[in-house]
Write a structure and sequence with these properties.
By secondary structure, this protein is α+β, with helices and mostly antiparallel strands. Helices cover 45% and strands 19% of the residues. The strands form two sheets. A four-stranded antiparallel beta sheet has the order 3-1-5-6, with no helix packed on it. A two-stranded antiparallel ribbon has the order 2-4.
Length: 163
């Protein structure tokens, strides 16, 4: 049997009644945009590294040609070609992602409807804004199916240090 989930709700009640919230709407969009900016910076740094490899490879190839050292020319040409190939592949991948568009709330978010095939599992995530150390280690997950059934689960929470 497949379980087609219509809605999922998380109860993060804690013993001391401290405030917390699951980040949704504009805040989730802002978080997603901030993560996208971090990715852009990481991509930029990667592009600069690739450019450095290509420039070093080109310099080695020229030095090999001028000194008539075939091994140096081969190493330089290989480094340059490798960097150029990587840059072309990355550019193609980036263009494909751009054409497909960016989903603001990914399909893998807990609040997006999803189906669960029989005897399998599906990973979902949710972003929680909570003061440090103020969250219970156990949450309750309430799932409502498309058919109208309700299922409740108890979840053990773990802090993820890197997203």
């Amino acid at each position: 049997n497949w379980v087609r989930v219509d809605t999922a709700e998380v109860d993060l009640s804690n013993a001391d009644g401290q405030p917390f919230n699951i980040v949704v709407g504009k805040d989730l969009i802002a978080w997603g945009e901030a993560k996208a900016e971090e990715k852009k910076m990481k991509d930029h740094n990667g592009e600069m590294s690739t450019l450095g490899v290509m420039l070093a490879g080109g310099a080695l190839a020229v030095a090999g040609i001028l000194s008539k050292d075939n091994s140096l020319t081969t190493i330089g040409t290989a480094a340059y070609a490798g960097g150029a190939s990587w840059a072309v592949a990355k550019g193609y991948s980036d263009k494909r992602k751009q054409v497909q568009g960016v989903v603001t709330v990914p399909e893998s978010h807990l609040y997006a409807p999803f189906s669960l095939p029989s005897k399998t599992l599906v990973k979902r995530w949710v972003l929680i804004n909570v003061p440090s150390g103020r969250i219970s280690r156990i949450a309750k997950l309430k799932i409502k199916t498309v058919e109208g059934d309700t299922m409740e689960y108890s979840l053990n929470l773990q802090k993820q240090t890197k997203l």
